[in-house]
Structures are given as C-alpha cells and as structure tokens.
Specification:
By secondary structure, the chain is of the alpha/beta class. The chain contains 12 helices and 15 strands. Helix 5 crosses helix 12, helix 7 packs parallel to helix 9 and helix 7 packs across helix 12.
Length: 412
C-alpha cells in the first residue's frame, strides 16, 4: 500500500522544487535548450540570485504585512463566495473588502472576518482607490469593466476566458509559471478549471522528462456551471425519482442520472470550446506550442469536483517510481493510491480540498513511452477561486500591487 501524501508549499517552495527538478534530474541540459531555453544553467543561476526565493521569513512577513484595498467582482456567485472564504482562511492582507455584483444582487449581506459586508452594484466609481480586483462574473462583465479597473490603478485577476489568450495578458498557475506575473499590464488571467487540474499533475513530470503528447478525458461536475446549476441537478434527481417533469434551465439536457459531452459551442473540427481551452491554455502556460494535446470533455452527475483521465507520451519510458516520487513532492498535489483496496482519487474526497488528488499511475500498455494517471480536483477551489487567491498572494509577495497607502510598488 502506498501512503497518501500531500504538500503545502509556498509559491517560493514551488519554484525551488521546480528548478531543483530541472537542475538535478535532467542529464543533458544542452539538448533541451533550443526547445526549453529557460531551462539552461545560466538562467537557473540568474533566477536563484536575482529572485526572492531566499528571502528571510522576517522580510517575507514584512512584505505581507502591507494591506490592500480588495474588490470581488461577482461576489455572490459560487466562485465569488469561495473567494471571500479563501481570503479569510489564508489571511490575505485585506485593508478593506468591497463586494460587487449586478444590481439584482446588490443589497445582500455577506460575512468577512465575522463582519457583515453589503454587496454593491458595480458602477463607474466602484474601483476608485482599489488595489486588487478578483473578478468572477463572466467574460462579458470582465471585458466591460477591465479598462476602468486598470485606469483606476488596480490589478484585475480575472477568472473568465475573456483575456486568457491575449498575448499581453499573463495566464498563470503559481506552481508552474509565477515569473509571468512580472509581465502584467494590469490584468492577469486565471486558467480554465480543467486546464489547471491537468497542468498541476502533468507539470512535475514534464520538468523531469518533457511530455510530447497529452490525451485527456474529463468528467466534469455541475459546479462548473455555477451554484444554480448545482441546485438544478439536485432538483432533477428528485424530479426523476418522483416521476415528474425534469427542469433544464442551466443545462441543455438532464444531468442527473445522465452524462453528455460538454455543452459549450463546437468548432468546425468537432471540438467544443472547453476542449480547446485545455489545448490552447496549456500551450501558453507551459510555453510550448509544439506540445500535442487532445481533450474530450464530458458532463457527469457529480455536484462538485472534476475528474480527469490523462495519458502522457514521452520520448522514452518513464520510470513509475520516479513519477510517483515527483507527484508526492509536487506542490498542489496530494498523491492518493491504494492498489490493495482499489482506492484512488474521487470527487467526493476532492470536494473542499485545496490540493489536486492524483493517483493510479501506470504504464500505457499500448505504448512503452506512455504513462497514465487519474485525478480529481475541486473545480471551485483550485480550479477557480484558490488559484485566483494564490495569484493575489504572488502579486503581494513580489510587491507587484499598489498598497493601500497609494504607493506604487512592483519593479522587477
């Protein structure tokens, strides 16, 4: 029986681990420089000596003691309420929290640090004096307010797809490409949930031996469509059991006791938007557009937490022991394997968890250079709100936010 293990590293531990992988486990750096120019030795030395990896705890605490004026755009949704909880749980240095929504939700009261906060309708002056905006109100809303947010001097971390593929907007998973935060021009994009969960599991292996092809099948819960969609699945299940008409307001078909391909629009090749997000976003985050990726995304009758079956192809066989060790040590991953009990990651176990549960590592019997894994991860937390808050923490740690004193900080 392989023990279940997890990791709770800081962003800086994640970088140290990532570059330690590359430095100690790659046997021929020069062969990879053309494809991975950022992995050569001179870059590592420059990174270690110029970055903040080795700051003292005292200095880190000093920087995080600065406080920020924070706004949540889309505060009453499933991700918005999770953002509020995470800011409190992780003790993010909030001087003042402003909750913004559509006029329909304005006037509601939510709790932050034991105090009631009234939700306000977003308007032209909503971002005056704000340092950081965590946006999760949909692409159209983010596009509508992005200019006002940036002109107000704030940084927007956007959870929608509006800016993910904009070449001027960093797309960040802090455990993978935190250095991209330095390039922001006022907006940072949060990747799609399925991309985040897959990338967190694949990246530790990719840093040891570059992946050449990724084949993914997703099993996506109702939470990906929001809180009301989750309630609809409950109502659908009850209606089916009672032999009543089944409501389908948020899904095109009944999801309870059913599965169907993801209902986002299809392109000319027959791939839906959700599948192409996994392809295009992974290319951008990994910094490698030559990586071959194919995904099939499926809605399943699970309330919360997505699962994925992922097959990886390498140039040479990948040792199972090395793969397990890499995943056991990887930040953001909890390794779950019990072969005797046939116990592996499940969405019920992943729900409410920060780490992505990864296990059932095995060789692909159809390809000697293939490796297969299974994962489950909370779509609302690491797939959305947690990654957003981790980006905010990264910005604060690297002094890339304006402080509540209105001082501008954030030079490289």
């Amino acid at each position: 029986m392989t023990p279940v293990s997890g990791s709770h590293f800081s962003i800086f531990d994640a970088n140290f681990l990532k570059f330690s992988y590359r430095f100690t486990q790659k046997t021929n750096f020069t062969d990879k420089e053309a494809l991975y120019p950022h992995q050569n030795l001179s870059y590592l030395l420059q990174f270690f000596t110029s970055s903040n990896l080795f700051r003292s705890n005292q200095l880190e605490e000093q920087k995080l003691s600065q406080s920020y004026q924070v706004a949540i755009l889309g505060a009453t949704g499933a991700v918005g309420t999770e953002l509020i909880s995470l800011l409190e749980e992780r003790n993010f240095p909030v001087a003042n929290l402003k909750l913004l929504s559509s006029p329909r939700s304005a006037g509601k009261t939510l709790s932050f640090r034991g105090e009631p906060v009234t939700v306000e309708a977003v308007g032209d002056r909503s971002f005056d004096g704000v340092d950081l905006v965590l946006a999760s109100a949909g692409g159209s809303v983010s596009k509508a307010w992005a200019k006002a947010i940036v002109e107000a001097g704030a940084v927007m971390v956007d959870n929608s797809s509006a800016f993910r593929m904009d070449p001027h907007v960093p797309l960040i998973i802090p455990e993978i490409n935190p250095e991209a935060a330095h390039d922001h021009q006022g907006i940072i994009a949060n990747p799609n949930c399925t991309t985040i969960l897959m990338a967190i599991a694949v990246w530790p292996l990719h840093t040891i031996q570059p992946v050449r092809r990724i084949l993914a099948a997703t099993y996506q819960s109702a939470s990906g469509a929001g809180a009301l969609a989750m309630e609809e699945v409950k109502a659908q299940a009850q209606a089916i059991l009672n032999d009543e008409a089944v409501p389908t307001e948020y899904f095109p078909y009944p999801l309870a006791f059913n599965v169907f391909p993801h209902n986002s629009p299809l392109d000319d090749q027959g791939y839906c938007q959700e599948e192409m997000k996994m392809v295009n976003e992974t290319h951008k985050i990994f910094g490698d557009s030559s990586l071959k990726i194919k995904a099939t995304c499926i809605r399943v009758p699970v309330l919360r937490a997505h699962s994925e079956a992922v097959t990886l192809e390498f140039d040479a066989p990948f040792d199972l022991g090395a793969a397990r060790q890499a995943l056991q040590q990887a930040p953001g991953v909890k390794f779950v394997e019990d072969w005797e009990q046939n116990y592996f990651p499940m969405p019920l176990d992943a729900s409410g968890q920060d780490d992505v549960l990864v296990g059932r590592i095995r060789h692909d019997i159809s390809n000697p250079c293939g490796l297969e894994l299974w994962l489950s991860g909370d779509q609302i937390r690491k797939g959305a709100a947690l990654n957003t808050v981790q980006i905010a923490e990264l910005l604060a740690e690297r002094e890339l936010l304006r402080t509540s004193s209105r001082e501008t900080v954030g030079t490289r």
